[in-house]
Amino acid sequence: MIDVPGAPFEVLLFGLFALLAIFGAIRVVTASDPFISALSLLFNFVSLGVLYLMLDQPFVALAQILVYAGAVVVLFLFVIAYLGDRRELAGDAVRARMLTPFAIVGSLALGAMLMGVIIAAKFPSTLDELPKTKAGFTFGSPRAIGEIFLTDYVLAFEVTSLVLLVAVIGGIVLGLTGRARHDRLRKLMQTRSADQQKKLVEQEERELKDRRRAQRAGGVTGSSTGTTKETTS
Amino acid sequence: MTVDPVWFVALSAVLFAIGAAGVLVRRNALVVLLSIEIMLNAGNLALVGFSRVHGAHDGQVFAITVMAIAASEVVVGLGIVVALSHMRRELDTDELAELHG
Amino acid sequence: MMDIQTAAWIAYLAPLAGVLIIALGGSKLAPKVAGLVSCLSVFVAFAASITALIKWNSVDERERGVVSTAWTWLSTGTFKVPFEILIDPLSLWMLMIVTGVGLLIHIYSLGYMAGDPQFRRFMAYLNLFVFSMLTLVLAGNFVFLLVGWGLVGMASYLLIGFWHDRPTAVEAAKKAFIVNAIGDVSIMLGIFLIFRETSELSFARVFEKLPEVVGAGSGTAFMISLLLLGGALAKSAQLPLHTWLPDAMEGPTPVSALIHAATMVTAGVYAIARLHPVFDLSIEAQKLIFIIGGLTLIMAGFTALSQTDIKRVIAYSTMSQIGYMFVAAGIGAYGAAMFHLATHAFFKALLFLGAGIVIHALGDEQDIRKMGGLRKHMPKTYALFLIGSLALAGVIPFAGFFSKDEILAFTLAAGDVYGGWAYAAYGLAVAGAILTGLYGFRLVFLVFHGPESVLVKRYARGEITHHGHATNEHGEAPRSMFTPVAILGLLTTVAGFLAVPGLTNVPHEFLRQAEAAPTREALEAVELSTSEAWLLALVVVLTIAVVGIGLAFIMWGKGPRTRSTKAGGRMIAALEPISQHAFGWDKLYHTIFVRPAQGVAMFVRRTDEVVTLPLLEEVEVAARQSSQGIGKAQSGLVRVYAFGTALAMLAVIAAFVWIKG
């Protein structure tokens, strides 16, 4: 992508955004206010987006910004704002107190090991000429991604759409609150035919009438005891 | 490309470790979810890096799919968090320990 | 026009179609329809087999038989086992008998089993049996012979135990199956040996190759023959695997008629005839065959004298007559054996079905001590039963005479080849013939002659009812039952003339074609001439028959137990227990096999109770305690779990790094 001469420029670019990404990540993990964490995550995402651009993959970079930075982080922010102030009590881990230092050590070890593996591994030499796809689209372009998605990985494509659908439904169901959720869930789970619906409506009206009549009768006599024969229509 | 893609992959390792630490140390459910996002992105970075190395699109396609899945997972995860808060529960993962043996 | 293969396949598959239709129709089919379907399928089979018979003439004379392959059932590399049927005179002979007699019995069953709540199942099983028997008879290689062998055993089990809420029936079915299983193992081992020697399984090729690789008279030949014989003995209820046949009478009478008289029990004889090139290789085995046949026929005949159940008498009679067939097969007179098989099928089925009419009429009574004087009230049945008994005893002009005559003649002539053994067999056969007349007519006299018993009087008055109707309402028997019996009576009368010595020689001529069941060379001389052997046999048979019948008349003619002399009475009293307990074979087997098996079973059960179960309980307690202990490690804390995962991942990566260097 970058044809601008001057190798150090790219190195600088990489270094800058790599550092920003790491910084963001650390801030996410260490901030006590979840709001700050979410914003740091935004930092991280955008930096990564730029890094993707550096790797000659514009579409992925775009998706990163749109989906992650633009949707996921926003969702987080919404929820955090909705939930109000839920600051974590600092350092009051009552149970599993010993875990924290071990966890940190473990993570460091993990990171070190991965680094070691990467450094020791033999990578194939970087391609200078990036190959075009079968249909002749340039590497990393939206057209190329589209082609791959609709030919080689069409199954993944379809399944992913299904997963998204399921997530949407899950989100809705989880989001229903209290009595609204109860009623709505009940209604969702009952399927009635047209006549059944009509009968239900009639029954509800009848009950309403009875209740009103009882109220009026109770109001007049003062009590609702006694066997007053009611002629039901 | 004068920056060897290896560096990108190395960066992903670092980010992954940071995310892992976040998951293991923090108790706030939201922060845990955020840390998971970091880990996912680290994975994406590695995928994209390798895609560049081999000149194949598979990595990119995989990365995009991961994005979609991660988004779905966030939706559901946050849905659970919201439901929990409606039940007036503490969002502390140490407190939410009912699945014990 | 149809060719012979198609006809044979239709005959073979029609009963299968019958079973499937009835089985799939289930309770949606009215019983009448099911009965119709089953009879129709066998009728189609019979018609097709007649067609096949007619078509046989158009087959090239030099062929050994027509082999028709449906498809290759098993194929690995160069070894192939095709699903093939062999059509030659022998299989056509059996085909006609099985489908013909089978058809008559199917029609009979419509009447006999009418009203039974499981009528459809019965008819389906009958069809299944016909199909199984046809598999056995038409098989073109050893594999499908075995398949048919096993299927027939299964069908027999299902039909003996048809009334499965009767414990005696269930026991009998089990017994039949187990004894047959022994035979199955034996024949299987024989087939394995054959395969090991020849690497072939189809009949034609085995018959060609076996004499080359296995020397005549060698130990291997004897072994193979012995093992094959074992299977035949079990299937045909000959010594020592005979104990299941009397008990098999627990099944409905049509079953007894079809399976345990006409067809299945003759499978052993068929097998010996079909596999005769194998048996031709071992004289010792041949001796064994006819000796066993002789011993069985005497033993069975003697036992039949004291039986009180009408069906058991006929069952032992069957055992005895098959002994005759074994004698004939052993000496190599295959034509005679098969001829006797055919005539026996006719008159034995006649006897059984006639007995079925009597049983039905008297309200399911089978004890002959309760019968007597029935001929006044069932004259037609009496006449037919008499025909059957005369044929059994060997009285001219009925079929049994001619076939028995042949066997005796051949046996005597076989003395040239086998020496003393054959003469011994001849003596046994003659004595057995006396016994045959004796027990056969004992049955006739006790059931039909003499003073009327209480039961018979009740029948006459119409007091015995079946499904609400008096049993003597519509004559002696419904038409569906009577007609087949009458047809069998006719066949018994005329079938004999197929082999009048000096005049006709149909069975031999027919079976000799394609080397299907040729009489052994040494004996060929006998059948071609009207030599003295014939005349001697003629006289002998007739004399024997008259002697037997006469003795029976003296002893039982005027009703039960009219003994002539005191000495005779004492002798009978002494011998009777032996006869009643069938020479103690059941007891013997019980002591040798059943008791030890039960002992082992008890021992194992005791061990289980004392040792195994407490041990397992300990294991259970230990497992539960340890799992509870481990359960304490599950804190429910997500972080801890995640940490565990992370650790595991570390370990895996480390392992990878270490292995990959």
Explain this structure to me?
The complex is a heterotrimer of chains A (233), B (101) and C (661). Chain A has 233 residues and is an all-alpha fold. Chain A has helices spanning 7-30, 34-54, 58-83, 99-120, 142-150, 154-175, 178-189, 194-221. Chain A has a domain at 8-86: Up-down Bundle (Four Helix Bundle (Hemerythrin (Met), subunit A)). In chain A, helix 1 packs antiparallel against helix 2. In chain B, helix 1 packs antiparallel against helix 2 (29-54) and helix 2 packs antiparallel against helix 3 (58-86). Chain B has one domain (5-86): Helix Hairpins (Orthogonal Bundle), CATH 1.10.287.3510. The termini of chain B are far apart. Chain C has 661 residues and is mainly α. Helices cover 73% and strands 4% of the residues of chain C. In chain C, the strands form two sheets. Chain C has a two-stranded antiparallel sheet. A two-stranded antiparallel ribbon of chain C has the order 3-4. Chain C is globular. The N and C termini of chain C lie far apart (80 Å). The chains are: A mainly alpha (233), B mainly alpha (101), C mainly alpha (661). Chains A and B meet through helix 1, helix 2, helix 3, helix 4 and helix 5 of A and helix 1, helix 2 and helix 3 of B.
Q: Kindly state the mean pLDDT of chain A as a whole number?
A: 79
Radius of gyration of chain C: 29 Å
User: What fraction, in percent, of the residue positions of chain A are helical?
Assistant: over 70%
**Helices and strands of chain C: which structural class?**
mainly alpha
Largest sheet of chain C: 2 strands, antiparallel
Q: What is the CATH domain class of the domain at 8-86 in chain A?
A: Mainly Alpha
Proportion in helices of chain C: over 70%
Uncertain stretches of 5 or more adjacent residues of chain A: 221-233
Question: What is the approximate shape of chain C?
Answer: globular
What is the global morphology of chain A? elongated
Write down the CATH topology of the domain at 8-86 in chain A.
Four Helix Bundle (Hemerythrin (Met), subunit A)
Cα distance spanning the termini of chain A: 83 Å
The CATH homologous superfamily of the domain at 8-86 in chain A is called NADH-ubiquinone/plastoquinone oxidoreductase chain 6, subunit NuoJ
The count of β-strands of chain A is 0
Strand content of chain A: under 5%
Mean pLDDT of chain C: 83
Class from secondary-structure proportions of chain A: mainly alpha
Instruction: Count every helix of chain C, treating DSSP H or I runs of 4 or more residues as helices.
Output: 27
Number of strands of chain C: 4
Distance between the termini of chain C: 80 Å
Task: Give the biggest beta sheet of chain A.
Answer: none
